[in-house]
Amino acid sequence: MKSADKLDISRSVALFEEATTLVPGGVLGARKPSDFIEGEYPIFLASGKGSRLTDVDGNEFIDYLCGYGPMILGYRETEVDDAVIRQIRDKGFCFSLTQPYQNQLAKKIREIVPCSEMSIFLKTGSDATTASIRIARAYTNRLKVLRCGYHGWHDWCVEMKGGVPAKLYEDVHEFGYNNLDELQDLMERYGEQTAAIIMTPFGHPNHQPMAEPAPGFLEGVREIADRYGVMLIYDEIRTGFRLALGGAQQKYGVTPDLAVLGKGMANGYAISVVTGKAEVMMAAAQKLFISSTFFPNSDGYVAALKTIEILERDNVIQSIWEKGERLLERIRGSVAAHDVGAELTGVAPMFYLTFAKDAAGNHKARRTEFYTQMIRKGFFFTPHHHAYICHRHTDQDLEATARAIDESLAYVKEQVPG
Questions:
Q1: Which candidate, 78, 125, 159, 292, has a CA 20 to 30 Å from the CA of 314?
Q2: What's the CA angle centered on 141, arms 140 and 146, to 5 degrees?
Q3: How many CB atoms within 10 Å of residue 193?
């Protein structure tokens, strides 16, 4: 089988070379070339519309990374952008005091998110997870935190510890998703000192297969938290407004004390929220300080209100589930047909195609060959992060994607046999 033609990414490469003289590493975080496939993926993008991206060299892609999750509707969503533009042009968005949109959005969050009684609005997921920990510690007068999942880049939770004194994370202990025994062991050691259990209610660990909660897992965590008087926090930055309008807590029927949401809430505009029980949330008003010049900016509030309106009005989440299920059914057939150790995990709105480790160590080569073929064919996935379905993915997009995945797996089978 013939390989797809290599893309011309010369402009991207030139911009990256320039960037290395201007920005440490050229680009930061999960956008580094090494987090994709160096020499194959673009490094700089020029534009997006609907479900499609165009890079600085003019290559067009059907996109499944969706800005790492915020684009739940699609790029340049006219209704959302127009609402924000009107706000900026007619009223302004950055003031010394708060505009009334704060109250409107807090009411809407309380209406749709099971745990929500009061809310604090911030800008990023890391802002929100860190604020939730501070609130839990202030409310309980305890120190330790038990965590499960990725919760951002701040000192208490960042995986790469460079530049972070050990004292800033020595009271944070990890447990595995779907592992109640491990959590219980930690609680037996630290329960009386523990302020919070923070976890992703749906398992999406970095660079690893995804997992839904095992029967009784979320219920078991809830019971353990109640038994020890610990605040249960759901990190729903990715799952909020995707697995269900009210997040994974609505889908799985287990309600936390606090939740943090962001990403899909405003279709790309910067806003996040800590929301939860009023008694717990009031610690933020009474015992601690949370503030930023930009937290009250109304562009994010307006975008969130319009995005949620569209999600409800157009039944977007059900549509995303239906589209994703159709695509995943096709992918499962291709995985079964081409025995190369490919593993499909996740659920319809967010899924991941990985390659299982094998005795011969072929999984990395298979992964590289597969994702090289996909980007060359014009489909923007990444080897190290799960994919998303957005509202503007069309049936034609999904059909073309299913064919490309099947062809790419067939190519991998030829190039890297077992």
A1: 125
A2: 65
A3: 13
DSSP code per residue over 183-233: HHHHHHHHGGGEEEEEE-SSB--TTS--BPPPTTHHHHHHHHHHHHTPEEE
CA distance 84 to 92: 10
d(CA 92, CA 95): 8
Q: How far apart are CA 337 and CA 405, in angstroms?
A: 12
Ordered by start, the domain boundaries in the chain are 10-75+316-415, 78-313
360 alpha carbon, distance to own chain's centre:
32
Does residue 132 surpass a pLDDT of 80? yes
Q: What is the dihedral of CA 280, 282, 285, 287, to 10 degrees?
A: -50
According to CATH, the topology of domain 78-313 is Aspartate Aminotransferase; domain 2 (3.40.640)
**pLDDT at res. 361:** 85
How open is the CA angle 14-19-25, to the nearest 5 degrees?
Answer: 120
Distances, alpha carbon 327 to alpha carbons 31, 51, 324, 342, in Å: 26, 15, 5, 16
Residue 112 to residues 259, 284, 411, Cα–Cα distance (Å): 13, 22, 45
Give the confidence band of 207 by pLDDT, cuts at 50, 70, 90: confident
Total residues belonging to the chain:
418
For residue 200, which of 154, 159, 156, 233 has the smallest C-alpha distance? 233
CA-nearest of 184, 181, 198 to 144 is: 198
Structural tokens at position 7: 């893309």
**Residues 134, 272 contacting (CB under 8 angstroms):** no
- Judge contact between 224 and 184, C-beta under 8 A: yes
pLDDT of 27-78, one tens digit each?
A: 999 999 999 999 999 999 999 999 999 999 999 999 999 999 999 999 999 9
* CATH architecture under which domain 10-75+316-415 falls: Alpha-Beta Complex (3.90)
Contact, 199 vs 147, CB < 8 A?
A: yes
The answer on pLDDT for 183 being more than 90 is: yes
